């Protein structure tokens, strides 16, 4: 066992039988997913980035759409970032798209368009962490590298009865060491994908389907009846709440005003109706501030309700205010005026899609 890990594999654990049983199960039961029909490392890379924090069924249409637009690294590398964000629209966690775009540019400029098969070179690419690195190397290049995410830690916590807290970053290293020791040298692709598939279909967070599990006989937690008590995972901090006004400004032709979010931070580079914190403004003070800041007089004509959007760390509650500009032309604000059709060509985050649905 590697000296990096304090966890030892049980003496009676038969690694070879375990590998055989669940790799055979994987080949017979695996889902027919579009990224499993290829060994192209770029396609596998895109799928793994999309699958981070996103359900498989959600990813499938986005993956197909994205690959139609950008079938090779060259199309993606030469694309405008706004177009890339538009193709990603609705998938969330947009930093994934920006990092992927930057990394693919690096692949084209530095690696002659070839996704690196070298561990150290691959890790240099923006947005490629240890999990993505392991997934690409094992699935696309058949290298015996661990690809450890929450699914894998849950499965192996139960199989080997490991009570380490998987919410702690250092625990991931423990599981990577364990996977390195038991991974199939002959078929690391099926091994890693099999673990992912087992976690998705059988060894689920609640109510694992132990009666259907192909490796039940190898499971230490099942043998002791403690499978539902594992993995150990401390609860994350409670999400904070933030409230905003979304201002729907219309000019005399009925066009809307939208603005681009900053290039850094949450929802970077995406477009939105102007968003104002309710910690800073009331409706009355917002109207006054717009007059002082831009010399624009507005009249709120309707309240279109509230939308809610849950991010991983914060919950937004957004009150939608529809307003007309009074007695003047468009104000000198930094953004674009768009109609009902043109606005659909701009990359909007999910929360703004919810707002738009109230309007159109």
UniProtKB/TrEMBL annotation:
<keyword id="KW-0004">4Fe-4S</keyword>
<keyword id="KW-0227">DNA damage</keyword>
<dbReference type="InterPro" id="IPR003651">
    <property type="entry name" value="Endonuclease3_FeS-loop_motif"/>
</dbReference>
<dbReference type="InterPro" id="IPR004035">
    <property type="entry name" value="Endouclease-III_FeS-bd_BS"/>
</dbReference>
<dbReference type="Pfam" id="PF00633">
    <property type="entry name" value="HHH"/>
</dbReference>
<dbReference type="InterPro" id="IPR029119">
    <property type="entry name" value="MutY_C"/>
</dbReference>
<dbReference type="InterPro" id="IPR005760">
    <property type="entry name" value="A/G_AdeGlyc_MutY"/>
</dbReference>
<dbReference type="InterPro" id="IPR011257">
    <property type="entry name" value="DNA_glycosylase"/>
</dbReference>
<keyword id="KW-0378">Hydrolase</keyword>
<keyword id="KW-0411">Iron-sulfur</keyword>
<dbReference type="InterPro" id="IPR000445">
    <property type="entry name" value="HhH_motif"/>
</dbReference>
<comment type="similarity">
    <text>Belongs to the Nth/MutY family.</text>
</comment>
<dbReference type="Pfam" id="PF14815">
    <property type="entry name" value="NUDIX_4"/>
</dbReference>
<feature type="domain" description="HhH-GPD">
    <location>
        <begin position="50"/>
        <end position="201"/>
    </location>
</feature>
<dbReference type="GO" id="GO:0016798">
    <property type="term" value="F:hydrolase activity, acting on glycosyl bonds"/>
</dbReference>
<dbReference type="Pfam" id="PF00730">
    <property type="entry name" value="HhH-GPD"/>
</dbReference>
<dbReference type="InterPro" id="IPR003265">
    <property type="entry name" value="HhH-GPD_domain"/>
</dbReference>
<comment type="function">
    <text>Adenine glycosylase active on G-A mispairs.</text>
</comment>
<dbReference type="Pfam" id="PF10576">
    <property type="entry name" value="EndIII_4Fe-2S"/>
</dbReference>
<dbReference type="InterPro" id="IPR044298">
    <property type="entry name" value="MIG/MutY"/>
</dbReference>
<dbReference type="InterPro" id="IPR023170">
    <property type="entry name" value="HhH_base_excis_C"/>
</dbReference>
<keyword id="KW-0479">Metal-binding</keyword>
<keyword id="KW-0326">Glycosidase</keyword>
<dbReference type="InterPro" id="IPR015797">
    <property type="entry name" value="NUDIX_hydrolase-like_dom_sf"/>
</dbReference>
<keyword id="KW-0408">Iron</keyword>
<protein>
    <recommendedName>
        <fullName>Adenine DNA glycosylase</fullName>
        <ecNumber>3.2.2.31</ecNumber>
    </recommendedName>
</protein>
<keyword id="KW-0234">DNA repair</keyword>
